[in-house]
Specification:
The protein is an alpha+beta fold. It has two domains: about 150 residues, Alkaline Phosphatase, subunit A (3-Layer(aba) Sandwich), CATH 3.40.720.10; about 50 residues, no CATH class. Helices cover about 30% and strands about 10% of the residues. It is built from six helices and six strands. About 20% of the residues are buried. Belongs to the sulfatase family. Keywords: Calcium, Glycoprotein, Metal-binding. One of its GO terms (molecular function) is sulfuric ester hydrolase activity.
Length: about 220
């Protein structure tokens, strides 16, 4: 096990962030990028929070004490911390949304919140999340490990009312789908694994996609 300073902006080591909560740092950086953006040019902003991942086994998750105190009604102390990490991330998402609004960019933006996998629920692995009512957890092939939510908001969708899409979609489908939504032709991307899901999601069309997963040691193939 190694310890050291490994927090970077590109290749530059950031030495002035010690003691600051990572979720706050990422959120503030995203807000700064938005404030400084030239709106005559397009912007692709990918914000990948560490929350609510476990850091290490002897101290899996951390959160600001004042946020943890808001969840005193949760009996399990570690689940209380987990709730606090999610809460800070949720506030951060709201801050980024507000920054886009203040920059007058929301009217021409596609705003997404996506999870990459189900929660780790095994305390021995530093996990105190929940995938209920789905079976399984992170690193499993059950729906609790691979069936995750996603939220898309945009005035550009021209939906008459909000709706829930239940079609099967794989993470590799986001590239051609968003490329198409931004005005591009997915065929220009060449031979890729994903499918353009724009029409399927917007018009609620039926979709059948085969997902094959092979587990061997610590590798996954889909």
């Amino acid at each position: 096990m190694y310890f050291g300073l490994d927090f970077r902006n590109g290749t530059e080591i950031l030495r002035d962030k010690h003691g600051k909560y990572a979720t706050h740092v990422f959120t503030e950086t995203a807000e700064q990028i938005i404030r400084n953006h030239d709106t005559s040019k397009p912007l692709f902003l990918y914000l990948a929070h560490l929350a609510a991942h476990a850091g290490n086994l002897f101290k899996p998750e951390e959160a600001p004490p004042e946020v943890i105190s808001k969840f005193k009604y949760i009996k399990n102390f570690y689940r209380r911390i987990h709730a606090a990490t999610v809460s800070v991330m949720d506030d951060g998402v709201g801050s980024v949304f507000r920054a886009l609004h203040e920059k007058d960019m929301l009217k021409n933006s596609i705003f997404m919140f996506v999870s990459d996998n189900g929660a780790e629920v095994n305390p021995k692995e530093g996990g105190y999340g929940s995938n209920y009512p789905l079976r399984g957890n992170k690193f499993t092939q059950w729906e609790g490990g691979i069936h995750v939510p996603a939220v898309i908001w945009s005035p550009l969708l021209n939906l008459k009312k909000p709706r829930v899409a239940k079609q099967l979609m794989h993470v590799s489908d986001w590239l051609p789908t968003l490329y198409r939504a931004a005005g591009g032709d997915p065929h220009d991307l060449g031979p890729i694994g994903g499918f353009d899901m724009c029409d399927t999601l917007l018009e609620d069309l039926p979709w059948h996609e085969l997902a094959y997963s092979h587990f061997k040691l610590n590798s996954f193939n889909i």
